[in-house]
Specification:
CATH topology: Rossmann fold
CATH superfamily: Vaccinia Virus protein VP39
Structural class: alpha/beta
Strand content: 15-25%
Number of helices: 7
Number of domains: 1
Amino acid sequence: MMELICGDCLKHLDEVQSKYSDRDIILVSDVPFNIGYGYATYKDRLPQDEYLRMLQVVFDRGVPFVIIHYPESLYAIASFLNKTPTRVCSWVYNSNTGRQHRDVAFFDVKPNFGQVSQPYKNLNDKRIIKRIKEGKTCKLYDWWNVNQVKNVSKEKTAHPCQMPLEVMKNIVGVLPKGSLIVDPFMGSGTTGVACKELGYDFVGIEIDESYFKIAEGRMKDGTG
């Protein structure tokens, strides 16, 4: 099941939560960073208190949620919501900026890293060498080296801050099976593509019509 909504999540989340009240909803989003990104519709430079209150309205609704952000901002959000993450992972990338990673914080849900596999990293261990020869892989670690989409990936769309599909598949893939994933800031739809590939039901909300159309096309085509 894939449902896409073009509109303001502040206006639509209540109806989504009411419509799917019988489902185990998990909110998952690469939220606006509030650092002045050039989005076409949304103003990404709110006063800090207004920004935190906006995120509180979005995420403080009695269901588990996952937020992707820079570490300092995640601390501020967690403090404002009076919430402690159950787990935090790091997405690390090479860039020409001073910031080389973002964190992924899971709130009120325990990710199962055994649901996503990856190649072994410690290749000098004789036991690991044997397992690799046997075709085995290991469960996902909490440190993900994945290039950004911007300037380095064929995934790139017109969205100024598109998430890599691999990162979103890691996030969605460790969540409980059968969950309904809701992305209130859907952007170009990478969360939805990950859900479609992994077999999770998805609801995405996007305020900008041009980004919504990109997401709609990616859902329809099944492309990363």
